[in-house]
Amino acid sequence: MMNKLRIASILMGSAALAAPTFGSNIAAVEGQASGTAATLGSSPIVTAVLSYPGTVNGKTYTSWSFLANDGTGSLDIFGTLSGLGYTPTVGDAIGVTGTYSPYHQIPEIGTVTAIGATSSGNPLPAMPTLTIPQLNQTTLPFTAAGYLINLDNVTISSGTSIITPGVSTWGTSNLTLTVTDSSNNKMTLYYWPTSYAMANFNLDGITIPSGPVNITGFDSVYPSTPGSPEFTPISIVSVPEPVSTGLLAVGAAAMLMRRRRTA
């Protein structure tokens, strides 16, 4: 009897080792091969909606793109979500099943087959603030890939001169620009309104600033040889002048926040 139980136990262990396992959290999913089935059971929190179906400033979008973070990592969920009965909402904890398919080194679940919220109104994980040297990598670390990121106190140019001649505002067309920090580190800034509705919604028609700015966006690597790191802005805020900053502090004290996929 003992031998039978031992054999049964060994067989069950072998079957468990042979069965395909898919990550229940984001870190495990990021270790999978592209094109494999993925199920997130770790209730990641929706931290940002980057694009959504509809028309924005004359540009029509057909897909959702939103970021989810479970504390082990962050990734993009991309697709139409047609007939699945869920509308992505920041602060939702979700479960999702689809296909792991990284895009430009952004960890991504696409071809979503099931998705739903397990709770809503959850507090959001802290947004990382990274530097150009941390972002300008041909192989993105998972500490940056798939996150909404703050890039602070940089200036925007087209290389040797401020912005492409004749282009003075953000529009509905893609733009390749340069961001530079106070230590003269540079990287590509890729404005991508053809795929991301929120970039279009937040920036279209606004003058491209020439002074220091804080940018919120995400990192990716265009698949050239070698890879070309790009930071895509979703929103941009000018850095206040020192005098303005002082006045704001006083006020606060007195009164006691190319060849690319299209959507």
Can you walk me through this structure?
This protein has a 6-stranded mixed beta sheet with strand order 1-7-8-6-5-2. Strands 9-10-11-13-12 form a 5-stranded mixed beta barrel. Strands 3-4 form a two-stranded antiparallel ribbon. It folds into 2 domains: 22-119, OB fold (Dihydrolipoamide Acetyltransferase, E2P), CATH 2.40.50; 132-254, OB fold (Dihydrolipoamide Acetyltransferase, E2P), CATH 2.40.50. The protein contains 5 helices and 13 strands. The protein is of the alpha+beta class.
Provide the descriptors you would attach to this structure in a database record:
263 residues, alpha+beta, OB fold (Dihydrolipoamide Acetyltransferase, E2P), 5 helices, 17% helix, globular
Compute the number of helices.
Answer: 5
Bin the strand percentage: 25-35%
**What's the shape?**
globular
Gyration radius, rounded:
22 Å
Largest sheet: 6 strands, mixed
What fraction, in percent, of the residue positions are helical?
Answer: 10-25%
The order of strands across the largest sheet is 1-7-8-6-5-2
Number of domains: 2
Stated plainly, the CATH topology of the largest domain is called: OB fold (Dihydrolipoamide Acetyltransferase, E2P)
Structural category is: alpha+beta
Distance between the termini: 62 Å
Q: What string, H for helix and E for strand, traces the elements in order?
A: HHEEEEEEEEHEEEHEEH
What is the CATH class name of the largest domain?
Answer: Mainly Beta
Low-confidence parts: 1-22, 244-258
CATH A-level architecture of the largest domain: Beta Barrel
